[in-house]
Amino acid sequence: MTVGLVFVSHSAKIAEGLVDLARQMAPDVALVAAGGMDDGGIGTSFDLVTAAIARAESGDGVVILCDLGSAILTAETALDFLEEDERARVDIVDAPLVEGGVAAAVAAQTGKDRDGVAAAARTAVPAAAAPAPDAGAAESPVYSRVVTLVNRDGLHARPAADFVTLAGTFPSEVTVNGEDATSLLAIMALGLVRGSDVEIATADPEGRNAVDALADLLASGFGEA
To answer: Which of 2, 5, 9, 10 is catalytic?
Structure first.
């Protein structure tokens, strides 16, 4: 079982399209679209959102992402009508629908709990709105490897999701050109294309295996070389 995701949009096509996109990177996650009105028109539907929450729930909880303010109101109303124990397992996350939805789906695929999936969605919040990182917090790496990307399209969505999924299996913190190796959006924002040099590094003395596994994955070309 994994955390389920519900995408609430004023447009059924947007919600369904996001499910199709996220499923490419999270095939084992319950991804449910709750877009449009009951008659297919533009808007949001209490009944569709309520049904989507029930479909997405497999025991590990549900995270909901919405597109516009009234979609959030509809989702909040649906939560108000749930039983207390059900409501406690559902989170509405304030994050960009598409970017946050994809990041959350990959986090759920890697087995993150509800808090972890919600946190992944919030990584899509624009940098200007996010707290500034502590410049003194970075540690010097104790082990690193540099790999040149060889796959045709570089570290685009699907390879990046595979990379993040593997990174999430290791307890050690690892970085990719200074960015968190478990953050899909941070890695994709690097814009790494074929021929790019990528440094995989860790400040954890126990992180050598993680660095080697991730470097070997990049060097393999993800079957696209």
So the answer is: 10
